[in-house]
Design brief:
The complex is a heterodimer of chains A (504) and B (645).
Chain A (H helix, E strand, L loop, with lengths): L4 H18 L2 H6 L1 H22 L9 E9 L4 E7 L1 H20 L7 H20 L3 H10 L2 H10 L4 H29 L7 H4 L8 E4 L2 E4 H16 L7 H9 L2 H26 L4 H24 L4 H21 L3 H32 L16 H4 L1 H15 L5 H14 L3 H26 L15 H19 L2 H18 L1
Antiparallel strand pairs in A: 1-2, 3-4
Helix pairs in contact in A: 1-3, 1-5, 3-4, 3-5, 4-5, 4-12, 4-15, 4-20, 4-21, 5-6, 5-7, 5-12, 6-8, 7-8, 8-10, 8-11, 10-12, 11-14, 12-14, 12-15, 13-14, 13-19, 14-15, 14-18, 14-19, 15-17, 15-18, 15-20, 15-21, 17-19, 17-20, 18-20
Chain B lengths: L1 H27 L7 H23 L6 E8 L8 E7 L1 H23 L6 H20 L3 H19 L6 H30 L15 H13 L18 H22 L1 H7 L2 H20 L4 H23 L1 H20 L4 H10 L8 H18 L6 H13 L3 H27 L8 H13 L2 H5 L18 H5 L11 H26 L4 H8 L1 H8 L4 H78 L1 H22 L1
Antiparallel strand pairs in B: 1-2
Helix pairs in contact in B: 1-2, 1-4, 2-3, 2-4, 3-4, 3-17, 4-5, 4-8, 5-6, 5-8, 6-7, 8-11, 8-12, 10-11, 10-16, 11-12, 11-15, 11-16, 12-14, 12-15, 12-17, 14-16, 14-17, 15-16, 15-20, 16-20, 23-24
The chains are: A mainly alpha (504), B mainly alpha (645).
């Protein structure tokens, strides 16, 4: 029997976005529009959080399933469900989007538009996380690319048009490849179906497709298309060029929604599709996945060492995070995969925190370059004028580095534990790259927060009440996940073990 | 049993609240400046009470009690991360030592006439003590990592105590970076051990550890000693009393590492890497002492000597067993702390140098007080008979005699360490403009010296080094803690050779120190001034810093170039321009093809309709009409004719 909570979770933000269109300019000025936005966003998030915490942790099966026929003639179903693999992504989206709307509370230029687009993004990501039909999943995933074009193109910096255009082109290429894979899968299945559940368990093994006169395994071709398609949006080095461009031009909150949500979501979709639909491909592809992940981690670290600004540092931190996630995914070990899924949650929260304090600093100081030419510091001593910001930044950085007691430690450790036995050399290289991240994050912290206060920043204010309120869930999440990760891990493990049994 | 577990939980709560107070004071301390000293003593008293209560519950046997639970993944699952507490006699030794020293230092700071930034030092003390307590009560390496993180945080705070100067900030972050790198290295090693299903419960150590994992774990703890290739000399320049920075940033991390090594001894012996670790530490100790010998400032010399001492203690641990390493580490720590209390105020040194004011020069009797205090402080860490460090030094020689290379290197290391220790002594004494030491400093230093006596640790006057336990006066704490160590009651011939070798090294080093630094003309200093370029490199840590910064610059350059090529050139220019050109050319070609095709099609269509159209046109013209009419009429006539016929 269908219960409609998941649909409610998706539709509430969409309804909120529609409401934004209905508000007049007068209502916008009065603040009604933004209150409506935060209420709908929070409402959807609360539904999501309640659903996740009321899940049965013993079962790997889908829960809160909603299913009915959508386009019956093409076997397209409206099918939603929650299990261990997507529960943490739902939590991530639930925490981040109300935070982003709160962060843009005082947006002067088209606030209704911005909030409405964030709400559409929230709905899209919720939908992509819980969709159990490939067509539906693609529908929401594709929908999530469009708001970024407007968010970057309207509210971005000087080069916003170019950045927006590149983001939509990269998304379009990726989505095109992904869609090709889905169509291939659909037509290879007998009877035709888009349902992940019906297609899972190696249904395509042995089936071939003829392309330009040559026969290819369906699973190989589709797996390749899915991988490359998601690599564009993930982003995976060297397909990341659009990403660094957007990092420079997009408002910090917009870039946070890209780095902290879209990227983990891309990795989740990759895990969902490859483990469910193409399990027979994974043993052969694991080395490639781990090598790509290691390359991402190393390149992200090398890029980051050279950065002098917070925005690009954030972008390349994200690149490193993608790498670590892929290493865990490619390990095909329960600890590694569980660690990778957990890593998506804490890494997303950490990147969100980093992005938001970057935004705060940029808004108050007028720029976010912590080093100028000749390595001269342009900030300094912010911890004395804004100690709370310094503490929040310290907690976020500690989590990103994997300091014990914070969420990042759990994810990093599990990935290394799971991956070392199968890919020792790659894990050692990854470990060196993680050590490099210690250097550039400490250097950044030193340049921004410590030392002699810069006289030009003596009016730099600390966190306001609103800012404390929206930073709180991020910081609390990172600390809670680091001290007591059991509830999250218990959610993920049964599903991961079931998927791994299919692979092996 | 339940009561034991309750006691453990009480202890863990005590540690938690101590750490929490430290963190809260650090974050909100500026508002509590006036009360920070009181808070410090209150929290210390509270935590001491908790430890005393738990210890009382474990008396008189101090039988080991442990408690564990799965933290990350269930305990029985491969790769699980388990946390827990383990309390035994060794734990209480560590806790008592740390609390006693903290109380002593706190008392010293309260009485000494200095301006102390209490609001920063107190959080550093509390966090470090909490962290150290976690390290000595940890059942698994994962708990030790949490403790180490708190100690690092405390050290970072204390070194950058004012945080408003760039020098302090750089010092604090440099410390945090080096120590954290070690911490992450150890975490990495522990993860590798967990992936190989090694038992990481410290109270169930058996079998061997996976070599790479064990090596990384040890390497990370080696980082905490700040011995070569790191250097403790720069951290001695922090704007806090030297004793405080030495205790929090050097001694506590070093002791935490040593305590952990002692716990892990059984498994390390089976892993086959202990000998390599021992050689690494020995080499590091030798190189560090070399660096220390060329330091011109006594504060730097003492800091380097402590680091080298800890590295040497680790080497002793590897070659001569846990007890030998442990006691040398305790001796060096207490001695270093004691010496750091006897440093005069630098401000008044500078003033005295400028004015040459006789009032600032020390009187002979007071100078004698300094000299005696410093002598004993130094002796405590150089293995003089009667101090606990001599037990370690002696046992090192006994075990080292089994291998010639070890004997040689060990002798060199002992010689250099003792030489550096006494060099510090003579260097401190040379400074005639040092202000009058207060009685407070002398008393507190003396208390630390007393703590480092063999009598306190072993219950015997000479630590069982000289006499056959005939000097045993009270039960030995060391025997309680290291119950496996056999204390020989009869001296064999090799023991006597060891004793002779040990004493020989000691006196040789003392004489060398006097000859090099104790006379009017500092021979070694003059020699090094002649070759200042070479010895300058040694003084600055053998150029390791420069090499490290060079490597980072190289990586940064590589990052800039990759960004320039991949992101800016390929993604920003080549790809967009290339794609645009391809699309433009393609569409131009398609448009041209389309036009040509359309023209061709038009031609075919035109020729297709032209002939019938022209024919019809001709018919319409008229002439053709008549020809057509006659042709048709003729045809009909012919037809009718044929039909008639």
């Amino acid at each position: 029997m269908n219960n409609y909570f998941l649909s409610l979770m998706i539709l509430l933000p969409l309804a909120g976005a529609l409401f934004q269109m209905g508000f007049s300019k007068k209502m916008e000025t009065a603040g009604l529009a933004r209150w409506a936005a935060i209420v709908t966003s929070l409402g959807a998030s609360i539904v999501g959080v309640l659903l996740v915490f009321s899940m049965d942790r013993q079962t790997p099966d889908l829960q809160f399933v909603e299913t009915f026929s959508w386009v019956g003639s093409y076997a397209i179903r409206y099918e939603l469900g929650l299990d261990g693999l997507n529960a943490l992504l739902v939590l991530l989206v639930a925490v981040i989007f109300p935070v982003l709307i709160a962060a843009e509370w005082n947006q002067r230029i088209g606030p209704r538009g911005m909030h409405g687009l964030f709400l559409i993004l929230q709905a899209s990501f919720f939908g992509a996380a819980v969709a159990q039909d490939l067509f539906l999943l693609f529908f929401f995933w594709g929908m999530s690319a469009i708001p970024f074009y407007f968010l970057v193109g309207i509210w971005g910096g000087e080069g916003r048009e170019s950045a927006a255009f590149r983001s939509i082109v990269a998304s379009a290429i990726g989505n095109c490849l992904l869609f090709s894979a889905l169509i291939l899968v659909y037509y290879s299945a007998d009877p035709h179906s888009f349902s992940i559940h019906e297609l899972s368990g190696g249904k395509f093994s042995g089936k071939t497709v003829s392309i330009l006169g040559r026969d290819f395994l369906v699973s190989m071709a589709a797996f390749f298309l899915v991988s490359v398609g998601l690599a564009f949006r993930a982003p995976v080095w060297p397909l990341h060029g659009w990403f660094s461009n957007v990092a420079k031009e997009a408002p910090p909150t917009v870039f946070v929604s890209l780095a902290a949500v879209t990227v983990p979501m891309a990795i989740y979709i990759f895990v969902r599709l490859s483990y469910s639909l193409f399990p027979e491909m994974l043993p052969g592809a694991e080395n490639i996945i781990v090598i790509v992940g290691t390359a991402n981690l190393v390149m992200g670290g090398i890029y980051a060492v050279a950065q002098k600004g917070l925005r690009l540092l954030l972008a390349f931190l994200c690149l490193s995070g993608v790498g670590l996630g892929l290493i865990g995914v490619g390990s095909l070990h329960s600890a590694g995969v569980v660690g990778a899924i957990f890593h998506l949650l804490v890494f997303g929260l950490g990147l969100c925190g980093f992005g938001l304090f970057t935004g705060l600093i940029a808004a108050r100081a007028g720029h976010s370059m912590f080093l100028r030419d000749q390595n001269q510091r342009s900030f300094g001593g912010l911890a004395t004028v804004a100690p709370l910001i310094a503490v929040v930044a310290g907690i976020v950085i500690a989590s990103l580095l994997g300091v014990p007691g914070f969420g990042g430690f759990i994810g990093n450790s599990l990935v290394i534990i799971g991956s070392y036995s199968v890919h020792p050399l790659m894990v050692i290289i990854a470990g060196l790259a993680l050590l490099l991240s210690t250097y550039f994050l400490f250097t950044m912290y030193r340049c921004v927060f410590l030392g002699e206060p810069n006289p030009a920043l003596e009016n730099f204010s600390d966190l306001t009440l609103r800012e404390k309120v929206y930073f709180f869930p991020l910081v609390a999440g990172l600390v809670f996940a680091g001290v007591y990760p059991k509830p999250f891990l218990d959610l993920v493990r049964p599903t991961v073990l079931t998927l791994l049994s299919t692979v092996k | 049993m339940m009561e034991d577990v309750n006691n453990l939980q009480i202890l863990s709560l005590g540690i938690f609240f101590t750490a929490l107070f430290g963190l809260m004071l650090y974050i909100f301390g500026d508002k509590l400046q006036k009360y920070s000293r009181w808070i410090f003593f209150l929290v210390l008293a509270f935590f001491s009470g908790v430890v005393f209560y738990v210890a009382a519950g474990q008396e008189p046997t101090f039988a080991p009690v442990s408690w564990a639970r799965g933290w990350v993944l269930p305990r029985d699952v491969a790769g699980a991360i388990t946390v827990g507490l383990w309390v035994d006699a060794f734990t209480f030794v560590g806790l008592a030592l740390a609390l006693l020293l903290t109380a002593l230092l706190g008392g010293f700071l309260s009485l000494a006439p200095k301006t102390i930034v209490w609001v920063r030092i107190v959080p550093a003390f509390l966090m470090s003590i909490a962290g150290f307590s976690i390290c000595v009560t940890a059942l698994t390496p994962w708990m030790v990592f949490i403790g180490l993180f708190l100690i690092i945080l405390g050290g970072t705070v204390v070194l950058g105590a004012t945080w408003k100067s760039n020098e302090d900030a750089t010092l604090g972050i440099r410390f945090a970076l080096e120590r954290s790198s070690g911490l992450f290295c150890s975490i990495f090693g522990a993860c590798i051990l967990a992936s190989s299903n090694s038992s990481l419960l410290l109270n169930q150590q058996s079998g061997s550890l996976e070599p790479l994992g064990a090596a990384l774990l040890l390497l990370g703890f080696f980082f905490q000693f700040q011995s070569f290739p790191f250097s403790a000399r720069r951290f001695s320049q922090a704007q806090v009393p030297l004793a405080v920075s030495v205790f929090i940033s050097q001694i506590l991390p070093g002791w935490a590492a040593l305590f952990f090594l002692v716990r892990l001894e059984a498994s390390l012996k089976g892993s086959g890497i202990l000998w390599a670790y021992g050689w690494l530490c020995l080499l590091s100790a030798v190189l560090s002492t070399g660096e220390g010998l060329f330091q011109t400032r006594s504060t730097k010399g003492i800091a380097v000597w402590i680091s080298a001492g800890f590295a040497f203690a680790s080497a002793l641990f590897a070659f001569a067993g846990a007890q030998a390493g442990f006691v040398w580490g305790i001796g060096v720590g207490l001695s270093g702390l004691s010496l750091s209390l006897l440093i005069g105020e630098q401000g008044r040194q500078e003033k005295a140098k400028k004015t040459g004011n006789k009032k600032d020069k020390i009187e002979a009797s007071t100078r004698a007080r300094f000299t005696v205090s410093r002598f004993f402080a130094c002796a405590a860490g150089t293995g003089l008979l009667g101090f606990v460090s001599s037990i370690g030094g002696f046992h090192g020689f006994i075990h080292g005699l089994e291998s010639a290379p070890v004997v040689v290197c060990y002798s060199i290391a002992i010689f250099l360490l003792v030489l550096l220790g006494w060099k510090n002594f003579f260097q401190l004494n040379r400074d005639t403009t040092v202000t009058e030491l207060s009685l407070v400093q002398v008393i507190f230093s003396a208390l630390l010296v007393v703590l480092s006596l063999s009598f306190v640790w072993d219950g015997s006057l000479f630590g069982g080094v000289v006499l056959d336990r005939a000097d045993q006066l009270v039960p030995s704490v060391l025997k309680k803690v290291f119950s496996q160590v056999q204390n020989n009651t009869q001296r064999s011939e090799s023991d006597l050779i060891a004793l002779g070798g040990y004493w020989g090294m000691f006196f040789l080093a003392f004489l060398a120190a006097y000859w090099g630094f104790g006379r009017k003309k500092e021979v070694l200093v003059s020699f090094s001034n002649k070759f200042s370029r070479i010895f300058g490199v040694v003084e600055e840590g053998y150029g390791v810093d420069r090499a490290f910064l060079g490597a980072l610059r190289l990586i940064s350059y590589a990052g800039e170039q990759v960004y320039r090529i991949v992101d800016q050139r390929i993604w920003d220019r080549l790809l967009p321009n290339g794609l645009t050109r391809v699309i433009e050319k393609g569409s131009q070609a398609a448009t041209l093809m389309d036009l040509r095709f359309f023209a061709r099609l038009s031609g075919i269509l035109r020729s297709g309709v032209e002939i019938p159209a022209k024919s019809l046109q001709l018919i319409q013209n008229g002439n053709v009409q008549w020809y057509l009419f006659f042709a048709v009429a003729s045809g009909i006539a012919l037809l009718l004719n044929f039909l008639k016929g």
